[in-house]
Design brief:
Layout (H helix, E strand, L loop, with lengths): L9 H53 L31 H19 L4 E5 L12 E8 L19 E8 L2
């Protein structure tokens, strides 16, 4: 049987090539699956940030004048009064209620999003508060994103975070 010696091991080689191709296909499908999961997670976090901004907008609508700082004071999260213990239990004036709402909103962001933080930024024009919407930014830890990302209006997003910026009319 001299013809059989030339064919020895060819079946094993074909099996090895087939298994290698199958392994590459499985790894490719795994990569696609992981990328899809990351995109779904990003979409869920973006939807959560939109929902949290809508929550803040509803809080502002209950007492819109409280979220307007004095004309000589810039509007940011630090410009509001310190929040009392709990405005659901104690009576609060409009300014304290606004601070409590902001603190409760920021805590909801921290509880919902990884490294989540919310910030209320001044309108583009500091001299005209009447009719000017507040800029509200929600940031969270990003899995993948460009290092120098900025919001649509040029507001910088902190390094390593994804941000969603919205304008909220008080």
């Amino acid at each position: 049987m001299p013809g059989l010696s030339h064919q020895a091991g060819v079946g094993l080689l074909e099996s090895l090539v087939a298994v290698s191709i199958l392994a590459l296909a499985v790894l490719g499908m795994l990569g696609v699956q992981l990328r899809t999961l990351a995109e779904v997670q990003t979409s869920v976090r973006r939807a959560q940030s939109v929902r949290l901004i809508e929550d803040f907008a509803e809080r502002i609508k209950t007492h819109p004048q409280s979220f307007r700082p004095p004309p000589d004071h810039p509007a940011d999260s630090a410009s509001l009064l310190p929040a009392p213990a709990d405005c659901r239990i104690t009576a609060c004036d409009a300014a304290l209620l606004a601070s409590w709402d902001l603190a409760a909103w920021q805590q909801a962001i921290a509880d919902t999003l990884p490294r989540g933080a919310g910030q209320v930024l001044a309108p583009e024009r500091h001299d005209a508060w009447n009719g000017q919407p507040l800029r509200v930014m929600v940031a969270w830890r990003a899995n993948e994103r460009a290092a120098d990302a900025a919001a649509a209006d040029g507001t910088d997003c902190p390094m390593g975070l994804s941000c969603h910026l919205a304008h909220v009319q008080p």
